[in-house]
């Protein structure tokens, strides 16, 4: 149970307790006891649960038993440890970056810090837990870690321990727990732009869960009853921000919901004393009628499903349902529709966009030779790379036809300076850039580029991947290294599985250590696992044929994934944005209309790039309408 709760929290979730008064208008004493115990635990540990959101790493890159969340202001990050190390006094975390300022502490403890070391390769940390006592874990169960990277923002980590205590013997008592688990947001499609995914229906649980009192043999088998020692591997139900995944609770026999046996007996004795009232003639009649109605509803429902014709849908499982949908009308948040220009509130054929931690928007304003930054809800931009007067040039304080862009966690930017055949790094607030890749001359050697387009960042290694358009390849570069490494393509322009054709954009998928490549010239999206010599098809036609059906693409130019692994594609020449559920090759149009060009709020004129914010709102570069459109998810 705790594992499911933690994973739900890390991916954004909601768990509710359904405890209410009984037929006499009172909350049973046994449930009052449970609520007080949960409140005592959350008083210490609630910081890791409430007002948090999924971190950029939901699951640790080394330790699969560690999941993360972060505070909404991005100042702290929390790590949840599901399994306590049995044969080691160390906890290894691979995702966080460390610095000399890093501090590790146990939440709720008076100790200043817990010892730690840097892992091999100067990435991640190793936490020494040899000095942590079991009774502290039973009471608190959380570690705090701050200052975990080289940025000026402090990160705060918490780890939940789900350690199984083999030396503890269980004696069973009987308790009835009624619980309802439901998504925070659940809705049903009302138009053709609704995407419905099976990812667990709403469900309720109202069954007997055998909770256990633990008797500790090391303390003369005395019953542990103090609410302050309410342990982390009990069945906790807590509210969190939003739902991405829903989990079915299973009865647990590792619960430590501490109970007073006499109180339980008293509670059930009250029910026995009123047995005659419950089974009066009137109650029996009402009960029989209710049962008959329930049976009728069940039979009707089964008949509907049995006779329902088979249809194609975006569902991937008959037992899991989730809904993703967006408004079909976009909101213009940057630029002026159909009006190109070079003022601070205008754009001229923009190409790519990125979001930073504050949801500020960065746009490559290609024909104006600059990068514009738009703060949230402000339509006037600020030039953060290139020249505000739109002049292009060869020196590093100029850009010429910028295309791809990425923004790191410190709001530094990397820009594909397309017409200068180079990638330029602009630190936050700088008035001039520095050369990152390419040497400013066209070529196909390992230190040259030919028309660079899209960029992608691997946060684990800090590698930057470059779509080298006219060389039909993907190159990888590291900071302070002028030579790159070929990782995909490079075998000429072609449509077989060892070649690429005019790649325009890439997305690094850390879960599979692969690149999603927009193979524009072949009208498809392909996955190239790093280290492999060929790609596998993800969307579009494997033979490189363009088309307008849901199985085809036509000169796509961008791709991205959401936290659930669903894919979004800018199908440029079909004037639409396509959505693909995980594992599906049949796309659904969620914005624009296939083959129809226009300038109203529902149409595009050559959509070139897309991105999602942390609420899964969709942003689209509407290139020849000279604007950025935002489609709200609801």
From TrEMBL:
The keyword Repeat applies. One of its GO terms (molecular function) is alpha-L-fucosidase activity. Keywords: Membrane, Repeat, Transmembrane, Transmembrane helix. This is Alpha-L-fucosidase. NHL repeats lie at residues 346-377, 552-583. It comes from the Eukaryota. GO terms for biological process: carbohydrate metabolic process. PANTHER family: E3 UBIQUITIN-PROTEIN LIGASE NHLRC1-RELATED (PTHR24104), PROTEIN LIN-41 (PTHR24104:SF25). Pfam families: Alpha_L_fucos, Fucosidase_C, NHL. Residues 58-135 form the Alpha-L-fucosidase C-terminal domain.
């Amino acid at each position: 149970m705790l594992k499911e709760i933690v994973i739900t929290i890390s991916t954004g979730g909601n768990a509710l307790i359904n405890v209410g008064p009984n037929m006499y208008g009172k909350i049973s004493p046994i449930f009052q006891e449970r609520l007080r115990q949960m409140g005592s635990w959350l008083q210490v540990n609630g910081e890791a649960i409430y007002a948090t959101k999924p971190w950029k790493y939901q699951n640790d890159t080394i330790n699969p038993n560690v999941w993360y969340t972060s505070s909404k202001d991005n100042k702290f990050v929390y790590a949840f440890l599901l399994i306590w190390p049995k044969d080691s006094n160390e906890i290894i975390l691979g995702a966080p970056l460390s610095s000399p300022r890093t501090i590790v502490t146990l939440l709720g403890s008076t100790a200043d810090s817990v010892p730690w070391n840097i892992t091999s390769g100067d990435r991640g940390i190793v936490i020494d837990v040899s000095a942590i006592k079991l009774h502290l874990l039973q009471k608190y169960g959380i570690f705090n870690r701050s200052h975990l990277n080289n940025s000026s923002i402090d990160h705060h980590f918490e780890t939940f321990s789900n350690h199984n205590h083999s030396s503890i013997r269980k004696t069973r008592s009987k308790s009835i727990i009624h619980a309802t688990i439901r998504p925070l947001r659940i809705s049903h499609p009302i138009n053709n732009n609704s995407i419905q995914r099976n990812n667990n229906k709403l469900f309720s649980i109202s069954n007997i869960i055998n909770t256990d009192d633990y008797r500790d043999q090391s303390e003369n088998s005395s019953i542990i009853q103090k609410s302050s020692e309410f342990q982390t591997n009990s069945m906790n139900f807590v509210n969190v921000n939003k739902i991405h995944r829903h989990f079915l609770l299973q009865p647990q026999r590792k619960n430590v919901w501490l109970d007073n046996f006499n109180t339980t007996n008293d509670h059930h004795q009250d029910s026995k004393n009123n047995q005659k009232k419950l089974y009066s003639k009137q109650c029996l009649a009402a009960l029989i009628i209710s049962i008959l109605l329930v049976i009728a509803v069940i039979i009707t429902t089964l008949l509907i499903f049995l006779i329902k014709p088979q249809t194609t849908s975006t569902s991937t499982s008959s037992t899991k349902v989730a809904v993703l949908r967006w408004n079909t009308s976009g909101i213009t948040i940057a630029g002026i529709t159909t009006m190109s220009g070079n003022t601070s509130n205008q754009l001229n054929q923009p190409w790519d966009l990125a979001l930073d931690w504050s949801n500020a928007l960065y746009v490559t304003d290609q024909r104006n030779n600059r990068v514009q930054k738009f703060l949230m809800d402000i339509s006037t931009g600020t030039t953060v790379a290139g020249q505000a007067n739109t002049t292009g040039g060869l020196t590093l304080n100029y850009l010429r036809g910028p295309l791809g862009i990425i923004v790191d966690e410190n709001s530094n930017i990397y820009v594909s300076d397309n017409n200068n055949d180079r990638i330029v790094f602009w630190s936050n607030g700088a008035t001039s850039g520095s050369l990152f890749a390419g040497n400013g001359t066209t070529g196909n050697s390992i230190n040259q580029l030919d028309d660079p387009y899209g960029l992608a960042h691997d946060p684990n290694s800090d590698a930057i991947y470059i779509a080298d358009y006219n060389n039909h390849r993907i190159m990888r570069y590291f900071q302070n290294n002028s030579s790159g490494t070929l990782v995909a393509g490079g075998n000429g322009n072609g449509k077989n599985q060892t070649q690429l054709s005019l790649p325009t954009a890439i997305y690094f998928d850390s879960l599979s250590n692969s690149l999603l490549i927009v193979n524009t010239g072949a009208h498809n999206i392909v996955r190239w696992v790093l280290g492999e010599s060929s790609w596998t098809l993800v969307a579009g036609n494997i033979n490189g044929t363009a088309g307008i059906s849901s199985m085809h693409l036509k000169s796509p130019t961008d791709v991205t994934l959401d936290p659930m692994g669903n894919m979004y594609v800018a199908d440029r020449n079909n004037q639409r944005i396509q959505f693909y559920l995980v594992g599906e090759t049949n796309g659904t149009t969620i914005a624009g209309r296939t083959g129809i060009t226009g300038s109203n709020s529902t149409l595009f004129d050559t959509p070139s790039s897309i991105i999602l914010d942390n609420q899964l709102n969709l942003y689209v570069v509407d290139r020849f309408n000279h604007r950025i459109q935002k489609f709200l998810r609801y």
